[in-house]
Amino acid sequence: MRMTYDPAADAAYCYIADGIAAGAAAQRVVTAIERGTVVLDMSTSGTLLGLEVLGAQQVLPPEALERTRTSPYVAVALYKSTSDAPDYRPLYEECFILVFADSVESARAAARTKAEDQEARYRNERGDTVTWSLEHLVDVAPAVDDNLETGGTFYSRHFRDYDAYRRMEPLLDGDPL
């Protein structure tokens, strides 16, 4: 469910249905509640399309309003595995991390924290120590679609050399990791 907030009006709108068209609400049910008002937007068939909360700062949890001030960002993190095993071949992992932030700078900081939290060290089934380390935070960019609740494109990138991409991506040739 997506929610928007207008601080000037102190009004929040919760979208129950996707893409509510102008005039789609055939009926509005207004209910006064302690410290605010709730307006239910209903379709002609009686389906709840969305609801507006007036006096939102007094009625809604602060974290709900805070989420309306942030947008989705996608970070691309590159990890490298190493091991103390003599025959170990390093493996690299590209990881896409979704964060919500109010700016690219705060998204970059949140993504770096999440990426570093995913570093790991463990013993495999042969008793070798394997370490996954963050090599580089490659990119942090706004998600292509800003509403990802029902799916959508969250990241895209471009490249010029398909052969280099094919050599880098083992899954294109069915090469096991």
Q: What attributes does this structure have?
A:
177 residues, alpha+beta, 18% helix, elongated
Strand order of the largest sheet: 1-2-5-4-3
Give the strand content.
Answer: 35-45%
The span between the termini is 38 Å
- The portion of residues assigned to helices is 10-25%
The average pLDDT value, as a whole number, equals 88
Number of strands: 9
The 3D shape can be described as: elongated
Helices and strands, in order, run as EEEEEHHEEHEEH
Largest sheet: 5 strands, antiparallel
Question: Helix tally?
Answer: 4
* Low-pLDDT sequence parts: none
Rg on CA atoms, Å: 23 Å
Lay out the secondary structure:
Layout: E1 2-6, E2 11-15, E3 27-33, E4 36-42, E5 48-54, H1 56-59, H2 62-68, E6 71-83, E7 91-101, H3 104-117, E8 120-123, E9 129-142, H4 162-168
Antiparallel strand pairs: 1-2, 2-5, 3-4, 4-5, 6-7, 6-9, 8-9
